[in-house]
Design a protein that fits this description.
Blueprint lengths: L1 E5 L2 E5 L12 H7 L2 E3 L7 E4 H14 L3 H12 L11 H19 L78 H10 L13
Helix pairs in contact: 2-4
Length: 208
């Protein structure tokens, strides 16, 4: 029996694969039917594309965590005995990350390309920012225009919450898009830390 997680709840179904000589692999057969496996070695759980899209949308717009979203699915499956519904929370966390990565690859045109994306190719292009050679020609610069029209502003903001996100086992965290988006790769970041000097500036405030 295979546990299928859908927007309507969890369902235990018996899935039979096609074993013809020209048949696709079992995981690709499920992909064709809109199911995403939680494991590719011994699959026992599958998520529908609809529930993965709904989870990403709830997480983006409503700030719903994976735990709360899965609790909702358990309530929808059995409102009387939700604690008896199989716990597939860890599977949802893992598959949700993989589904988000596949969406990114598709949105950036890598759905039908065999080559792997290079560093920064999964970052969103900003048409409003100054892009020499793309949306502005510096050779035709008009001196009558204000200087800010041809200048680019880089803003750095400190993420003070990041220091509370230290992992107990950092090796368990696998980066799916290491250096492919807005952030540099882990290797480049560690190389920067070896050269950078952390200088603590003395506060000029009299109250501290």
């Amino acid at each position: 029996m295979t546990t299928v997680v859908d927007t309507s709840g969890l369902h235990s179904l018996m899935i039979r694969f096609c074993w013809c000589t020209d048949a696709l692999s079992p995981n690709m057969q499920l992909f064709k039917t809109g199911l995403f496996l939680a494991s590719f070695t011994s699959p026992k759980t599958a998520f529908t594309f609809a529930v993965l899209d709904d989870f990403l949308l709830d997480n983006l717009e409503c700030g719903t965590s994976a735990m709360n979203y899965y609790s909702k699915l358990r309530q929808m499956t059995s409102s009387v005995f939700p604690h008896l519904v199989p716990d597939q929370y860890r599977e949802l966390m893992r598959v949700g990350r993989q589904w988000r990565q596949l969406k990114q690859l598709k949105w950036h045109g890598f759905g039908y390309e065999k080559r792997k994306p290079k560093a920064g190719e999964l970052a969103l292009f900003c048409p409003a920012c100054l892009q020499p050679g793309l949306n502005v020609n510096l050779a035709d610069k008009n001196v009558a225009n204000p200087a800010w029209l041809y200048s680019r502003s880089l803003v750095m903001d400190g993420n003070f919450k990041a220091e509370h996100l230290f992992l107990v086992n950092p090796t368990d965290k696998v980066a799916l898009t290491d250096g492919l988006g807005f952030m540099v790769s882990n290797a480049w970041y560690k190389m920067h830390l070896t050269k950078a000097q952390d200088i603590v500036n003395r506060s000029d405030c009299n109250n501290h």
